[in-house]
Amino acid sequence: xxxxxxxxxxxxxxxxxxxxxxxxxxxxxxxxxxxxxxxxxxxxxxxxxxxxxxxxxxxxxxxxxxxxxxxxxxxxxxxxxxxxxxxxxxxxxxxxxxxxxxxxxxxxxxxxxxxxxxxxxxxxxxxxxxxxxxxxxxxxxxxxxxxxxxxxxxxxxxxxxxxxxxxxxxxxxxxxxxxxxxxxxxxxxx
Length: 190
Fold this sequence. Notes:
Blueprint: E1 5-11, E2 19-26, H1 30-38, H2 40-43, E3 49-50, E4 60-63, E5 69-78, E6 82-89, E7 95-105, E8 108-116, H3 122-150, E9 153-154, E10 164-165, H4 168-179
Parallel strand pairs: 9-10
Antiparallel strand pairs: 1-2, 2-8, 3-4, 4-5, 5-6, 6-7, 7-8
Helix pairs in contact: 3-4
């Protein structure tokens, strides 16, 4: 299973209409990354339930157990570094061509996924590129808010009987500190 991400970049250049490219540095061997993208039992640990291992000429369903799924067709696997397939959201959405490329390096592997949908507008592709680039920041902010709320800190306007009342600036600073990637920035709200 892929579990460590050190670097994520999103190709914001509109190189091909409808294309979105995301590259992530993964601290894992090419073999481990390959299994994490092609073997159903490993994919289930991080992405969704894959109906079967990916094999050339096959098809599969990637199910997220929330009513959403993608049907995968035209699968081509070229071990150990390229996986391609077409997928359709709910089996009826527009056909996206997905290509995964794995490039080993000294830190593990660079994993790039290209999502190409010829009918996708430049604006929609840009929106996807931008949201991919913000996923980590959004997750850190959400986690930071949860952490600060779990500590009992509240501003006066929403404080309960057991809350620790702090000013708006102190509350916002605590969230910013928690969301920071620098652990040394974390401080207690007073």
